[in-house]
Design goal:
globular; 0% strand
Length: 151
């Protein structure tokens, strides 16, 4: 089951900083953060992740990754299990380390198995993302909204 596309006018309400933090959260799980795939991550986040307030950061004093994720998602999840499977299908993820802790959280809290994705499942979730031009225009307008808010 493909994740639903979200309505992202609401990112304007949360601002470019929150969007960038969400992109950075998922970027931490990539095998290569300098890859061409990494450049596509913002498009994927825009398409599939509901905005949240990133007032909670990993820099805060948390004993475990579980505690951080529990605090970050206290107001609700910005995605579903199928969204995380889409992420695994569309990006080369380092499934050990930070992703394993992320997957542990969802396994423990919700019973989601998102440690890895099978090859057959992967084909179900691979998708085209919007053009660079469309994304760049959208991101620029998101930055403009932030500038307008600061003025």
């Amino acid at each position: 089951m493909m994740p639903e596309e979200k309505s992202f006018e609401v990112w304007n309400d949360y601002g470019v900083e929150n969007f960038d933090e969400m992109v950075n959260l998922f970027a931490a799980f990539l095998d290569d953060t300098e890859s061409e795939q990494a450049e596509q991550l913002g498009k994927w986040v825009k398409k599939h992740i509901q905005p949240i307030d990133f007032s909670t950061t990993y820099d805060d004093d948390f004993d475990t990754a579980y505690d951080f994720y529990h605090a970050l998602f206290a107001e609700g999840l910005p995605f579903e299990e199928c969204t995380l499977k889409s992420f695994l299908a569309n990006f080369d993820v380092d499934t050990e380390g930070e992703w394993a802790e992320f997957a542990d959280y969802f396994d423990t809290k919700y019973g989601w198995s998102v440690y890895e994705i099978s090859p057959s499942e992967k084909t179900e979730y691979v998708e085209e993302l919007e053009s660079d031009e469309d994304y760049d225009m959208w991101y620029e307008s998101l930055c403009d909204c932030a500038d307008d808010y600061e003025d």
